[in-house]
Predict the structure.
Amino acid sequence: MTAFFALTTSLLWGLADFGGGLLTRRTPALTVVVVSQAIAAAVLGAIVVLTGGWSEAGPRLWFAVGAGLVGPIALFAFYQALALGPMGVVSPLATLSVAVPVGVGLFLGERPGLVQMAGIAVAVGGVVLAGGPQLRGAPVQRRTVVLTLVAALGFGTVFALIAEASTTLTGLFLALFVQRVVNVAVGGAALYAAVRRGAPALPADGFPWASLPALAFVGLADVAANGTYSLAAQRGPVTVAAVLASLYPVVTALAARGFLRERLRAVQATGAGLALAGTLLLAAG
């Protein structure tokens, strides 16, 4: 079940990233984040009321608050890095986020077997290659590298925090709701500050009502991915769950190939194959 939930996480995050990337071509990234997360928060709020999730309130919710504070910062740093530097550098570096939850798992005493260790190495290498690393070209600004590493650290921290935010299903709904409310508050404050500095909050033709279903999908896929990752981490080794969940760049690359007819470079196809091989090794271990 750990492998199933973790792979579901990578599928959902990959599709959410793909959808978010398409939306930010016409709508400011901060607006996409705030609107999509607000929709997710509204849906989760209704689920919490229907399931009686408020009864699960306790000290563990502080992990959800922490994830909600860190998540938008990581996402904003990631988007800014993408704006400043080439995808072939930013995407592979961002996959270093897996080091945080894996490190936490090892610190807590998890010791993967030899087959699983081989699977971790192969899968992580495959994800980096699937991002299409740029090995030649113009020098990359130091600021781009720093922003990408900040994003990777933030994403990895969210991985680790959300896994500790609850121990029951109804508690997970409440934790995800709290995380989204904090996300919207932090993202909304950042959007307000950006507008005060003169940045546009909406496209020139106004609010993209036609994109509302896509915005809802991005927000709900993202929150569902957080939920399935938490379930994966609770049911098996965090080291395995984190690596399998980090395969989402492969999903994004394949979605671009399927929907946008983008051709995969040889290095990306090789990376996708290695990621699959690493997944099989992890499952076999």
Remarks:
- The mean pLDDT is 82.
- The two ends are 13 Å apart (CA to CA).
- DSSP finds twelve helices and no strands in the chain.
